[in-house]
Specification:
The chain is mostly helical. Strands 1-3-2 form a three-stranded antiparallel beta sheet. A two-stranded antiparallel ribbon has the order 4-5.
């Protein structure tokens, strides 16, 4: 799991930067949900900014794969595909259990105390700010564990992966409060690290990633039953994945895909 919004930090130096950060934050936290369609005029009103900085921000986000331009229809927030979730989990399962195993018994008292503090953080699923604070703490915890592995390259890969998956975490964790279950896992992980139990640390890290994958996939599946904000359809014949649409399907292809999912 993960998440520090990339918009966190110093105040934006330009209006274009302000627009980029504001839209990015709402996309990542799913305030603008996957599949949502918006116009530049709507975003200008929303953020009280002009067309030029809004367009600049959208173009930058398009280059990052978070939004895409639609001819004559404005912009669409990039959908979430099940294959992206599964691919990310597969990579995390290769890296993070190994990092946790290497970190076992390698914690200073100060680091151990910080990890215990972070392990107690929970969240309100209905509050994007609460989720953001929780995911920020979660990312710090897992990044610190990876850093304690003693392998700087491994720690860098883990941190980068957590950051890139932030929107997936918001999408899954906004649906229900999994904080108590995650807190229990985090406590167990910290206990194993402090005790120097590399096998248990590896096991818990592996279990956390698979549990997170199930949370996010459950979010995708629950979306198909929602009548207002998200509809599922196959991503396409290339990968057989599932895509989340933030509004009802508008094309024959979308409707056919929805029919296929609902069977």
């Amino acid at each position: 799991m993960d998440g520090t919004p990339s918009s966190a930090g110093a105040a934006p130096a330009t209006l274009a930067e302000a627009a980029y950060r504001a839209i990015q934050d709402d996309v990542i936290t799913c305030v603008l949900p996957p599949g949502a369609r918006v116009t530049e005029a709507e975003l200008c009103r929303r953020y009280q900014l002009g067309h030029t900085p809004i367009r600049s921000g959208l173009q930058r986000l398009q280059s990052e794969g978070l939004v895409e331009a639609e001819a004559r229809h404005g912009w669409m927030v990039q959908t979430i595909r099940s294959k992206a979730i599964l691919d990310s989990s597969a990579v995390r399962l290769l890296l993070e259990p190994e990092a946790a195993s290497l970190a076992a018994g390698n914690l200073s008292p100060t680091l151990a105390e910080r990890l215990r503090q972070l392990s107690e953080v929970t969240y309100d699923p209905s509050d994007p700010l609460s989720r953001t604070a929780y995911l920020r703490s979660n990312t710090e915890l897992h990044s610190l564990v990876a850093g304690a592995s003693g392998n700087a390259r491994l720690a860098s890969f883990v941190g980068s992966l957590l950051h890139s998956d932030e929107r997936l975490f918001h999408f899954g964790f906004r649906l229900a409060n999994y904080g108590d279950a995650v807190t229990h896992e985090h406590r167990g992980l910290v206990d194993a690290l402090v005790a120097g139990d590399s096998r248990e640390a590896r096991r818990i890290a592996h279990q956390q990633i698979t549990n997170t994958r199930e949370v996010i996939m459950s979010g995708l599946l629950s979306a198909v039953a929602s009548s207002d904000s998200a509809i599922l359809a196959p991503a396409g014949p290339a990968d057989g994945a599932v895509t989340v649409f933030g509004s009802p399907p508008s094309t024959d292809a979308d409707r056919a895909g929805l029919a296929e999912v609902r069977g």
